[in-house]
């Protein structure tokens, strides 16, 4: 039996154990996924325990995505650029950090909306960690044009400056939402609308038109107020559950070398969220 799991604090609410264990069971793979609640002053010991106990790998969640990095043996290109690790793989004692969040988001978007990001002009709302990962992955997939809107404009400018010159030339900070009609896809990467602030929206719905694709990475609730309003306006919508499922699916493949049953994972997590 091989062990994988989650390091975070808190972790009791996490849907990752249910999702991964379901996939292991369906594929009859000899793995079990456990959630480990790690004390803030024991992050190094927790990472060392991966080697000591022969754990195959872990996901890393809030608040340790950055703090685990110094204790790893290697960090891949995306996690280095994003400055955060959400997946660790243990290859015979060598620990490598990856970040599958942005890639998971782009996979979910392209699969679920049947689009190619190369064909889209995109507006990102928010300039935090999630935005950084998503922008990196969009650029890796040759997105042609990205506009970044954040209520704190300086933070958006700082984020653009973190990318190399060629990448940064494709990102424009905007502060005038009147321009939104020029873009095909609007992605909310802010926590606005997330439980318990379910009555918040990141921007005024007046800026959204029926031709927009509107994507929200929040998945608690699945249908945020922003998505509900966008749907009422006739826009095509995409919620944040797929990002969660695909970031997990990529981690699963890094640990096992096999592709998990994404549709079954999606259905199980969605049913769980709807029941909540
Ligand atoms: P973060 O680093 O704290 O950044 C949050 C960003 O949102 C900042 O740019 C902040 O703007 C902006 N913001 C916060 N509250 C806002 C509000 N009420 N109205 C407008 N803008 C607001 O957070 P993060 O790590 O990027 O995570 C953001 C969200 O993504 C969270 O809700 C998280 O749950 C979700 N997420 C989902 C998945 C998934 O699998 N679906 C994965 C990762 C994250 P200022 O700079 O002005 O403060």
TrEMBL record:
Enzyme class at the top of the EC tree: oxidoreductase
Coiled-coil region(s): 139-166
Keyword hit for Chaperone: no
Binding-site positions, NADP(+): 126-130, 217, 240
Catalytic activities: L-quinate + NAD(+) = 3-dehydroquinate + NADH + H(+); shikimate + NAD(+) = 3-dehydroshikimate + NADH + H(+); shikimate + NADP(+) = 3-dehydroshikimate + NADPH + H(+)
Domain SDH C-terminal: 240-270
Enzyme Commission number, as recorded: 1.1.1.25
Enzyme active site: 65 (proton acceptor)
Binding site for shikimate: 14-16, 61, 86, 101, 219, 247
InterPro entries: Aminoacid_DH-like_N_sf, NAD(P)-bd_dom_sf, SDH_C, Shikimate_DH, Shikimate_DH-bd_N, Shikimate_DH_fam, Shikm_DH/Glu-tRNA_Rdtase
SUPFAM superfamilies listed in its UniProt record: Aminoacid dehydrogenase-like, N-terminal domain, NAD(P)-binding Rossmann-fold domains
Any one of the GO CC terms: cytosol
One biological process term in Gene Ontology: aromatic amino acid family biosynthetic process
Molecular function GO terms recorded: NADP binding; quinate 3-dehydrogenase (NAD+) activity; shikimate 3-dehydrogenase (NAD+) activity; shikimate 3-dehydrogenase (NADP+) activity
Function: Involved in the biosynthesis of the chorismate, which leads to the biosynthesis of aromatic amino acids. Catalyzes the reversible NADPH linked reduction of 3-dehydroshikimate (DHSA) to yield shikimate (SA).
Similarity section: Belongs to the shikimate dehydrogenase family.
HAMAP family given in the database record: Shikimate_DH_AroE
Protein name (record): Shikimate dehydrogenase (NADP(+))
Provenance organism: Desulfuribacillus stibiiarsenatis
Name of the coding gene: aroE
């Amino acid at each position: 039996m091989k062990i994988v799991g989650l390091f975070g604090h808190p972790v009791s609410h996490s849907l990752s154990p249910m999702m991964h264990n379901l996939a292991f069971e369906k594929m009859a793979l000899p793995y079990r996924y456990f959630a480990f609640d790690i004390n803030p002053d024991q992050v190094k010991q927790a990472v060392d325990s991966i080697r000591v106990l022969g754990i195959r790998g872990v996901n890393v969640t809030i608040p340790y995505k950055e703090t685990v990095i110094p204790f790893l043996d290697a960090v891949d290109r995306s996690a280095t650029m994003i400055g955060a690790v959400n997946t660790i793989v243990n290859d015979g004692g060598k620990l490598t950090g990856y970040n599958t969040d942005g890639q998971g988001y782009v996979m979910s978007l392209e699969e679920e909306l049947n689009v190619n990001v190369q064909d889209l002009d995109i507006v990102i709302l928010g300039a935090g960690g999630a935005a950084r990962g998503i922008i990196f992955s969009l650029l890796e997939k040759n997105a042609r044009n990205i506009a970044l809107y954040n209520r704190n404009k300086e933070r958006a400018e700082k984020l653009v400056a973190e990318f190399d010159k060629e990448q940064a030339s494709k990102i424009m900070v905007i502060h005038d939402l009147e321009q939104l009609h020029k873009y095909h896809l609007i992605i909310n990467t802010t926590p606005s609308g997330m439980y318990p602030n379910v009555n918040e929206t990141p921007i005024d719905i007046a800026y959204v038109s029926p031709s927009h694709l509107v994507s929200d990475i929040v998945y608690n609730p699945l249908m945020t107020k922003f998505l509900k309003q966008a749907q009422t306006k006739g826009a095509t919508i995409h919620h944040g559950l797929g990002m969660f499922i695909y970031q997990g699916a990529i981690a699963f493949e890094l640990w096992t070398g096999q592709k998990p049953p994404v549709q079954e994972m999606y259905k199980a997590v969605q049913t769980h969220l709807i029941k909540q």
